[in-house]
Amino acid sequence: MIAGPTGTGKTALAIAVAAELDAEIVGCDALQVYRLFDIATAKPTPEQRGRVPYHLVDCVDPVVDYTLADYIRDADRIISEIRSRRRVPIVAGGTGMYLRGLLKGILPAPARSPELRGRLQAMVHRFGSPRMHRWLAGLDPDSAERLPPADVQRIIRALEIALTGSRSWSSALSREGTWSRAEERYPALKIGLGMERETLVRRIENRVDAFFDQGLVDEVRSLLAAGVPESANAFKAIGYREVLATIRDRSPIDLVRAEVKKNTRRFSKRQRTWFRKEPGMHWLDMDRGLEAVVGEVIRLWRNQDGLLPPG
């Protein structure tokens, strides 16, 4: 598994290691799964995906609310298929909850009700999310306290659970936590990528500049014109949410660019904090250069027991 803050070079390292190990890559990114959201998600390019098999990128319609449970189900299936081909699965990405869920499993949530969900979505459009949040506070105060009034999708899910008679869900989460307390579900070599702070900040700012130069604003306009609703989960991503706001408010583009850079730097810091808490991580310094880090990953892999696909 290759993880770390945004901008540290996870994709490049995963591809280089995959070429050495005859491996396949399983994406671990909550936004790269969505089709059409291309620029600010920093997806691996078609050329990169052509070099090694790359899974769980560009595989979900953007109007779908793709959940942590969906990711675990899909990643489990793909990892099993890769191992059946006697190849090495490399899970690579920066979504810490996906990585934790894949390794530990999650507390099973109550079943969905598509019919009820549709009615709740219609009510959001009619009454607005703050009013729905107040309704949730009357049904499930704990969930309402955890969720901001603007988090439409999670408010709908919480209402769905409360209205189907599973009001103990919040207390179950509070009592047991999100993650299973069992042993990790996969033996894994965990690689965390670090980088000198000033170098990482420079890489992040250059990346954001590239997003805008590549046409991020036009991409957002195209998504809206194609019928992707502003409430879509992918529009919550850094880059998309700021551009969406400026299209509505007509803010100066330079201010939006600066806001995206600031928010990306903060996100990168949160990612680093999250992954630093992940047990068993081998932290490698990407300032050493890609070739040196690839060599170190291969050395660590060959020194591990029980990680190779079944022979």
Features:
311 residues; mainly alpha; Rossmann fold; Histone, subunit A; three-stranded parallel sheet; 6 strands; globular
Give the structure's gist in a few sentences.
The chain has 311 residues and is mainly alpha-helical. It has 14 helices and 6 strands. The protein has 2 domains: 228 residues, Rossmann fold, CATH 3.40.50; 63 residues, Histone, subunit A (Orthogonal Bundle), CATH 1.10.20.140.
Describe this structure in words.
The structure is a single chain. The strands form 2 sheets. This protein has a 3-stranded parallel sheet, with helices on both faces. Helix content is about 55%, strand content about 10%. The two termini are about 20 Å apart. The chain is mainly α and about 300 residues long. It folds into 2 domains: about 230 residues, Rossmann fold (3-Layer(aba) Sandwich); about 60 residues, Histone, subunit A.
